[in-house]
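Protein in question filed below.

…
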Amino acid sequence: MRDLALLFILLGMAWPAWRRPWLGVLGLAVLSYLHPQGYANGFLREAPVFFTLFAWVSLAALHQTWRQHAWAALPWRRLLDWRVLGLLALWAWFGVTSHYSLAPWDAWDKYREVLKILPPLLLTLLLIDTREKLHYLILAIALSFLLVALKGGYWAVISGFHDRVYGPPGSQYSDNNEFAVALAMAIPLLVLWLREARGLRFVLLLGIALTYASVVSSWSRGGMLALAAMTLGLIWHSKRKLLAIPLLLLLLATLFVQLPEQWFGRMQSTANYQDDTSAGERLQVWQVGIDFAAKRPLVGGGFNAWPALTLKEAGGLDWHSIYVKILAEHGYVGLALWGGLLGATLVRLTWGVRRHPAWVREYGAMLQASLLAYLVGGATLGIAYWELPYHLVVLAALLGTLSPPRVQAPDPG
């Protein structure tokens, strides 16, 4: 039954996508973040569901372009945005480091996997060309995470937060730690939806509360750090700080009263990392990655270099940090390209939208809070090749090109 339901969902996305290809971009976002195919238990579990819809949407976009004779109307301003060029430069450098990798076969396999992130982002740049479409795309992403969070938040509440919650099977955030960071990144998008919603405000507020509960019940220390950083970002950009802070404190107090003592013991180990075995192993693995980058500062070790570097020296299974992972696998050049792209996007969302209309500043504040959650939560997780943060970079590029800054009129005097 699950496979038949998923098949109907896919067919339901395909028809409107043929009529209006931009709706297919929303469908791709749902398949990426809700990941319904992970719940299939039959023939669709291993089927290329995402690729099938992507191919269909691409064909629909070409058909629309041919029908409207719009070959010369490519959105060059969006395609040549500095953030898009930064993404292309970063992926090109990934190809260079794969060529010089310590394990070339594994590196090229991983490179092809990571390269799959770019084509859907290109479709987004081509087809999302109005504020309304951008709004619905953000809504689709937020709704996808909300549906997963409702399930996790409900279970967290009825179990008294004694059990950990996990993401959709087979997704990029199926593990409890990754799931917590992903939901922390999704909360600002839900808040943006709440601010623009005319109805269902109580439902959205309840959904945001359950999303907070899901992050707390993940028992993830990195997730809690991401949640704290994101929440501070929301408060900073809130127009009603005097109301937002008491409501937030009330929500957290309600959640913390239900938490078991073991949860507080695990969170306390974040401060006492010297006595935590897991934290000690991560510090050891990070040191291995930093030391190796000093030996190959330009290209690093390439994708999937950790087995050759850590098994004998530290025994780690991952770098457990987006920063160390990028540095060890792609060198200081890769770290500069990657960090420069995300850092400059974050700065641009902070100060670069001040002369834009109010709605652009509102969207920019929420995208900034979401990226901040990723950069903080990723400090202890190896989630450098997630699709979501690069999707946020593309959304920031769309935000900057769909509404140019206001030009102040010259002083008549």
Notes: The two ends are 73 Å apart (CA to CA). DSSP finds 18 helices and no strands in the chain. Residues 407-413 have pLDDT under 50 and may be disordered. The chain has three domains: 1-66, 76-127+277-403, 135-271.
